[in-house]
Predict the structure.
Amino acid sequence: MNRGNDRLENLLIPFELLEPRTLPEALSMLADDDTAVRPMGGGTALMLMMKAAVFTPRRLVSLRALAPALGGIALDERGALCLGGMATLSSLEHSALVKTHASVITRAMPQLSNVRVRHVATVGGALAHADPHMDLPTILTALDARVQIAGPGGSRELFVDALITGYYETALAGNELITGVAIDAVPGRKAAYIKCTTRAADDWPALGVALSLVCSGGHIETARVVIGAATDRPTRVPAAEAALAGALIEGTTLAAATLDRVRDAVASQVVYTSDAQGSGAYKRQLARVHVVRAITAALQA
Ligand SMILES: Cc1cc2nc3c(=O)[nH]c(=O)nc-3n(C[C@H](O)[C@H](O)[C@H](O)COP(=O)(O)OP(=O)(O)OC[C@H]3O[C@@H](n4cnc5c(N)ncnc54)[C@H](O)[C@@H]3O)c2cc1C
């Protein structure tokens, strides 16, 4: 039988599609011990995997009816920006709150996929899918975002770099759901994301560089430098962060010696993977160039 028929047969395998009305109901329909049972946010990644016959569901638990409860964008009492797990990427793109409190997300969104996908894809799906080429997890890692997770035993929080543990792998149990993401208000924080594509601007990136700098009194106090897309998961570069901490800001740039240390750190401390978007060596060179552009962009933000 040829591969086309395999795919057709896969699409014809029946599965359950459930639509719970509440979070506890949704959690009770998931299964920790069956990878063929999955929650469905926007379905944009799941449908591609089903069409490609790399995922055959036994049960999909659609979270669509939870969107009114889990799709909001708000500030909490401590000023943290809270994005609901069912908030769509286009709601982030057009949110005045996101623009005010995390404008790096607003600036990145138009380059993320296309408007049709952004209208349905969700924050929860973007994080749980853990495709290393995705843009949002890299940005959220640089913002020290906290991912809120609900499960049968209660709720917990993880930073994005603890949530995404490897190539398409997360720390989520099969019966847990991402209910939201919180980004703390940090005075003086400036952030930038640079997406490098080798084809169309909204294509999958060959490299994503996300950077956040907490600035005070003309110098950088702390930094986050995160490489995405070119690695098996969003990867912080502690040596580059250490090189930036304490650096004096000169206009919208830093001393040449500091920039050299940052370039060397991203080149030598990260394992770059080769794929359809380019070789590891090419991506390493992209990172050397774009990390400095990201610093300038952050300082101008
Ligand atoms: C044509 C196309 C182009 C794209 N280009 C880009 C791009 O340039 N940059 C980029 O970053 N992304 C891109 N994407 C990927 C897109 O961002 C993801 O498909 C999307 O974010 C997934 O969200 P979803 O809600 O549709 O997830 P779904 O497809 O519903 O789910 C994805 C995975 O997450 C799980 N899941 C969903 N919601 C939850 C939840 N709340 N809690 C726990 N697990 C959950 C599902 O079980 C599944 O395993 C592209 C996608 C397409 C189809």
